[in-house]
Each structure stands twice: as structure tokens, then as C-alpha cells.
Amino acid sequence: MRANCSSSSACPANRSEEELPVGLEAHGNLELVFTVVSAVMMGLLMFSLGCSVEIRNLWLHIRRPWGIAVGLLCQFGLMPLLAYLLVISFSLKPVQAIAVLIMGCCPGGTISNIFTFWVDGDMDLSISMTACSTVAALGMMPLCLYLYTSSWNLEQNLTIPYQNIGITLVCLTIPVAFGVCVNYRWPKQSKVILKIGAILGGVLIVVVAVAGVVLAKGTSNSDITLLTISFIFPLIGHVTGFLLALLTHQSWQRCRTISLETGAQNIQMCVTMLQLSFTAKDLVQMLSFPLAYGLFQLLDGFLIVAAYKMYKTRLKSKDRRKSPGRAQVCHKKSTSPKETSAFLEVNEEAAVTPGPSGPVELHTALGPTGCLSSRA
């Protein structure tokens, strides 16, 4: 799974810049600027999202890693299989097929943490899954690529970007660790940081989208087939991830989290692996796919967030219409939007409890308020 770099001409990564087409040379400069800017913003963002993580809940995920196990199964079981099925179904060329498969074998991207926060997902599980999938990629990426390409006749060996995986892991864990410490020692200040992080996440997504469009112009040789796959691949990943989490009796909050983690891949890692493994001529045909995938996974994420917000608003209004009398009783204790949102989350999470313990009765999850003892 690594390229033979014994000579300077044998490895694409060691070729001189004069051999690169003008479009790809400009593409590389833009990518360098984009990488630096996004790395700084991502570090600040992960620090702010780390302020939403509680040590106690994180420890529970480690002690009973049911959600993490399901997430890893989705990441390195479902996604590579879906990529292989898409390659076979669309009868792609070998160069295009390997780009799709590499994308399917990549670990989860940190962009999923932003969307998870916006859909009131399990942030402890989301960050744990991103970190665990990045670590697991050290062994699972070469294993999956070997299994699915063993029958293919590849001209180049595939180079796993271990250095890039390590950098991604460091950029993820260190800011999150600082955020967890801030949340533990200064919980009030962490809420302010978290709000700023939500705004920063929106800015980062805009920057990623604009940069993706600019970089995609430099690789305009993509065909309609690759664009179609880049559109449906993350969407299928989100849907199958949600269904698998639902079949394993995860809570609705965890189902949303696992769904977003499954469909969101690490685009930068895929691009790095392609650059290390293939020639400039092949890259012209291959780089358009990960860039298009990144844009469409942002679009899918926004659609999921919008659908969730609409569902949540409808659920609130429906609950008010169904029980106006009980709403008046609860109104004496709390009428703030934040507490109403928390009330909805408690009812939602009480329906299914994660792990093998099974369902939990609703009246045990509502706490001491006594506003409702059961739900119609």
C-alpha cells in the first residue's frame, strides 16, 4: 500500500513542479492557502465545540462504547462497501474508481461535528467517533483498500498518508482537550465560547464551500457520472448510517449523530492520498471527485439541519395544541425557549435508551417537575 519512491521519477510526490500543468500548479497554491486557513479555523472551532463536552459523559462513552462501535462499523464497513457498489454500478474507469474507493475508506471529517451541534446531537459521541475513526484509519484504510482492490490491476501502489492522519488527530484532540478543561472549570464562560464557535462554524463552512468552488474550477475535467456519484454517495451514507443506528437500538439523538458522522468524510485526507499516489496526468481526472463530494456533503448537511429545525418547530407547536392545560401548569415553573427545547429532548431521548438495556419508561426521565407522567 505504498508507492515505490526509490527514485525521484518513480514517485509522483517527488516530481518537479515543471512537470505539473499550469492549472494544477495554481490549484496547489490555492490548496495550500486553503489548508492553512482552514487548519487555524478548525482548531478554534474544535476548541469551542470541546466546551460542550462533559468529562462524565465522555467517560461513559469510553466505558460502554456501543455508539462508537456502531459508528466505526458505519465508517469502515458501510462506506467502503457503498463506494465499491457505486464503482461497479456505474462502471467507472480505473482511475475514477480508485478515487471513489479511497473516499469511502477515509475516516470521518470534523465538519460533521458542526452539523451535529446544530441538530442537538450527542457532541460527546460525535467527537469521540471522529477521533476514534481517525486512529482506526491507520489500520483500516490499508486493510479496506487491499480487500476491495485485490482483484484490480493498479499501475501505481497506494500511499497511505500516515503523517496527514497524525496531524489530523493532533489538530482534533488538543483543541478539544482544552475545551473540555474550560467546560469543567468555567462552565458559564464555556457557554459563551460555544455560541461563538457556532458562528465560527458557519463561517468555516462558507469558506470551505467557496474554496471548493474555486478549486473545482482548476479541475474542470469532471464528467456527469462522477458528479452524480459525488451527490448520492454522502446522501446514501447519511441514510444507511441512520438506519443502522436505528436497528441497533440507539437513541434518536445518537442516530442523528451517527448519520452525520457516516456521510461526512475527511476530504483533505483523500486529496493528500491521491497526490501521493498518482501522477499529475491522473490527478486531472481524479481531484474533481473529492472536491465535488465535499461540496455536496455540505449541501446534504444543511438539508439535514433544516429538516431537523422544521421537525423540532412542528413538534413544539403540536405539543402546545395537544395539551394546553398541562402547558399552563408547566408555564408557572418555566416558559423559556431553552427549557422547552430541553423538555423536547428529554421526551425524545426517553423513547429509546442506548446500549442493550432496552426502553425506559417516560415518567422516569422527566425528573422532578411533574408536568407530565406519560405521553400519548
From TrEMBL:
Protein localization: Membrane
Database matches in InterPro entries: BilAc:Na_symport/Acr3 (IPR002657), Bilac:Na_transpt (IPR004710), Na+/solute_symporter_sf (IPR038770)
Region called Disordered, residue ranges: 319-376
Pfam families: SBF
Membrane topology type: Multi-pass membrane protein
Keyword Transmembrane helix attributed: yes
Domain of life: Eukaryota
Biased composition (Basic residues): 319-335
Transmembrane segments: 32-53, 65-92, 98-118, 125-148, 160-184, 196-218, 224-246, 290-311
Keywords from the named record: Membrane, Symport, Transmembrane, Transmembrane helix, Transport
Main location: membrane
Family: Belongs to the bile acid:sodium symporter (BASS) (TC 2.A.28) family.
Protein name in UniProt: Solute carrier family 10 member 6
Gene: LOC101401328
